[in-house]
Design a protein that fits this description.
Blueprint lengths: L18 H9 L5 E4 L10 E3 L1 E2 L9 E3 L3 H10 L4 E4 L4 E5 L5 E5 L8
Antiparallel strand pairs: 1-3, 1-5, 2-4, 5-6, 6-7
Length: 112
């Protein structure tokens, strides 16, 4: 798991990934949904449009991140599906068998 983002100090959904959240998501991932996601799917306002692979029941059409520039940058270098873990409010970008980048997301923008 890589952590290269240190500009935010809040651990609310859509902000930083907490180490306990990361640990728990690996130990008990809950429902994992594969999605296709590109840098074009991340709006300037942080809204993320999901392209769900497989059944879509119970999956929201959009998520939110406080740092859309970071997510776009990560997605430009990423190939293949992204895993979404709604239980933990995480997107999991796998690089290989040993390296994963986690991005904390929220089911909606704050105040909505």
């Amino acid at each position: 798991m890589t952590h290269a983002h240190d500009t935010c100090d809040t651990f609310e959904p859509g902000h930083q990934v907490h180490w306990i959240q990361a640990r728990n998501s690996a130990a008990d991932p809950g429902t994992v949904t594969d999605v296709l996601l590109s840098s074009h799917d991340v709006g300037d306002d942080g809204r993320i449009t999901l392209h769900v692979l497989g059944p879509t029941r119970g999956v929201p059409a959009a998520l939110w991140t406080h740092d859309p520039l970071r997510l776009r940058r990560l997605l430009r270098d990423h190939r293949g599906p992204v895993q979404w873990q709604p239980r933990w409010n995480l997107l999991r970008l796998r690089h290989d068998a040993a390296a994963t980048t986690l991005v904390c997301v929220a089911p909606h923008a704050p105040g909505r």
